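Data deposition worksheet. Section B asks for the primary sequence of the deposited chain exactly as it was used as input, without tags or linkers unless they were present during the calculation. Section C holds the resulting structure in token form. Section D is free text for depositor observations; keep each observation to a single sentence. Incomplete worksheets are returned to the depositor.
Section A, Depositor: J.P.
Section B:
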Amino acid sequence: MTTSTTCPPSAVPPPARWASWAAWAAPLGVLPSAVWRTTVAFTDGHRPVETAYMTVLSVLTVGLAFLTVGLVRSWGEVFPRWVPGLAGRPVPARTVIRVARTGGAVLVLITLYGVLNSLFGFVDEAPRLIGQEKEYDEPDAWVGYLYLPAAAWGFLVLAVARDYARRTTGRPAGGAAASQPA
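Section C:
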């Protein structure tokens, strides 16, 4: 007799339509700034370490933003077949919720700091890489528009995590225990 460790498809309700759109908006929102950053890394005469830093930062940003999609897809509920040792097992929903909420809150704080710093000028100059000799020109004003969609990333993660929590923990989004017949 074989037993399956996967949850039946009906065990977790489907995500709300708005949550699916919001989840896909996260990686699409960080993509313009990541593409610009990678392009600048290879075209502005940067040293190899600077090029590697900006490229890794761009890939990491898009990759982390893409994890938001897991909150509305099946691989956020059950580990895929190709994950060794965990294939077919349920993803620990409470851990995913904690990580998503923490990450979303950190992203919101970073965004708020960026907005407040641009308004009040807490820090005049961005940090430099160790050993960076050349001082580069400040980017044109239009580059700010490439970063603008990324400002929504934290808020999107928090909203999608709320929907994920509602669907996977069997509780209403507000956190109160769902009333279940005995």
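Section D:
Residues 81 and 87 are 5 Å apart (CA to CA).
Residues 1-10, 175-182 have pLDDT under 50 and may be disordered.
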